[in-house]
Amino acid sequence: MPEIYIDADACPVRDETLRVAERHGLKTFMVSDGGIRPPRDPLVELVVVAHGADAADDWIAEHIQSSDICVTNDIPLAARCLERGAFVLRTDGEPFTENSIGMALAQRQLMQNLRDSGEVTGGPPPFAKSHRSQFLDRLETIVQAAIRGK
After folding, report:
1. Residue 109: CA atoms inside 13 Å, Cβ hemisphere, count?
2. What is the CATH number of the domain that holds 24?
3. How many H-runs (helices) and E-runs (strands) does the chain carry?
4. SS3 70
């Protein structure tokens, strides 16, 4: 059975992910550098990593396997998970795929350069109710595909 890995720091869809995982009986890892209440579900494991910019990302990338699922907005982590054959879903419900990750990495670098030069000072759009609904729909579809091994 596939497992789910949540990049849990600042993840707005932790509860939704846990509900879908529980419905399918999937082991889930919530990876964080702290500050998250441990869940009571025995299929959910809270993994607390050392503080550091990429500590949670590194733990997920080292443990995730083919057909597992990662929930993250972190584009470099998404690329690492895709390299291992995992499914990756952003918190707004948009999947990262082999076809889209190159453009996402390039756009991330461009935006970083624009922020560094002072051209762009804002961040991503706020998380909306529609994102939550889209996330739930896409996660269910991805879980079913992962269970089938596709």
Report:
1. 7
2. 3.40.50
3. 5, 6
4. strand
User: SS3 helix, strand, coil % of the chain, rounded to 5?
Assistant: 45, 15, 40
How many distinct structural domains can be found in the chain?
1
Tell me the residue range of the domain where 135 lies.
4-148
pLDDT tens digits, residue range 27-70?
999 999 988 888 889 999 999 999 877 899 999 999 999 999 99
Contact status, residue 26 vs residue 67, Cβ threshold 8 Å: no
Q: What is the SS3 assignment for 88?
A: strand
pLDDT value for 37 = 85
Q: If residue 10 lies in a helix (H) or strand (E), which one and from where to where?
A: none
Q: Strand runs (DSSP E) across the chain, as ranges? A: 4-7, 28-32, 44-48, 69-71, 87-89, 95-96
Please give the pLDDT value at position 120. Answer: 66
Burial 65-98 (b: 16+ CB within 10 A, else e): eebbbbbbbbbebbbbbbebebbbbbbbbbebee
